[in-house]
Amino acid sequence: MAEQILKLGIPKGSLEKATFDLFEKAGFTITGYERSYFPRINDEQLQLIMMRAQEISRYVEDGVLDAGFTGQDWILENKSKVYEVCELLYSKATSNPAKWVLAVPNESKIKKTEDLEGGIIATELIGVTKEYFKNKGINVKVEFSWGATEVKARLVNAIVELTETGSSLKANNLRIIDTLLSSTTRFIANKEAWKDKFKREKIENISILLNAAIDAKTTVGLKMNVPKNKLAEIIKILPAEKSPTVSQLADSEFVAVEVVVDTSVERVIVPKLKRAGASGIITYPLNKVIH
Asked: Which residue, 48, 57, 47, 53, is CA-closest to 13?
């Protein structure tokens, strides 16, 4: 019987480090990606292949890859017919969606999209950009840009560029006219691979572990000792949707309370818990949170 392998496309470039960090947090060990397009992973049933995010959906659709990670923007741009396993809310700098924006130099007289009638637009996202202007009934020429698109903003009439924080646009003295598309990372599978029992289970396992690692980024474990006569008051302070674990301590007058909370909640409730009588309060990072 042939060895069963899942071929997995990993985006080379801006998403590369964030993707490998996520895999590490999910419990995988990956080595050799600095020198090879075929990094090693501590799972003999996985073969990793690194390629540009722009290409991954095409190769997944064609079956060259069984599954892979790419932006929703490139799935739309390539019009790829793939199975979308899940959305993964991570990106190179933040957990926010990346945006493709229409931008012009600060000194440009262009104030709105309609002002670009008859103009030239430079972008890497050709298909989506053409569709955007077509839907608005605005006649423009869309030219492909091989990167460093911000530089071309003063050579053509406008650019459509990917931004996550907007810092690069500001640094190049550009202002945003409109947003064409918000895009997050998607885990996608070849439709035939998804029908295969081994491959589907493998893909689903990866999805569970990666989503658990993402959820763990924004949560912490919270543990404390609580006098029994203060327990009801303490539980009221904890987020209503969270059901804490309550355990009896050796001292019969105290219980241990443990719960998982969002990091944004932690800094608000810890002082309240202390004032309400909790002691020995511990917060600790989590590797994975599986719902």
From this structure: 53
* Fold held by 98-182: D-Maltodextrin-Binding Protein; domain 2 (3.40.190)
Rounded CA-CA distance 30/275 in Å is: 45
Domain 219-285 class in CATH:
alpha beta
Hey, which residues does 254 pair with through a beta bridge? Answer: 227
Per domain, the residue ranges of the chain are: 6-95+185-216, 98-182, 219-285
Q: What residues in the chain have per-residue pLDDT under 70?
A: 1-2, 91-96, 241
Which residues contact residue 52 at a Cβ distance below 8 angstroms, ignoring those fewer than 6 apart?
11, 12, 13
* pLDDT tens digits along 28-62: 999 987 788 999 999 999 999 999 999 999 999 99
Give the three-class secondary structure for 80: coil
Tokens 């969606």 sit on residue? 97
* CA–CA separation, 26 and 211 (whole Å): 8
| pLDDT tens for each residue of 225-238 | 999 999 999 999 99
Q: Which CATH superfamily is domain 6-95+185-216 in?
A: Periplasmic binding protein-like II (3.40.190.10)
End-to-end CA distance of the chain: 36
217 backbone dihedrals φ, ψ, rounded to 5°: -60, -30
- How far apart CA 196 and CA 81 sit, in angstroms, is 17
